[in-house]
Amino acid sequence: MPTGEPDHHEPPIRATIVRYDDHPDECTLHPDDPDEDRQLTEWITAEAGYYFAIASCR
Hints:
The chain is mainly β and 58 residues long. The chain has 1 helix and 3 strands; from the N terminus they run ββαβ. The protein has a 3-stranded antiparallel sheet with strand order 1-2-3, with no helix packed on it.
């Protein structure tokens, strides 16, 4: 019987913020503990000003 839960579990996602003095800060979303194949391919980075809290959209 389907439970509405996925059959697989994705790893947790971590947000890492790097602060700079001379240009906008950056936030990178990446798997919490990626294996070697995913380490350089499953991430996204955005500069400050281009991301916001999802709660602000509701």
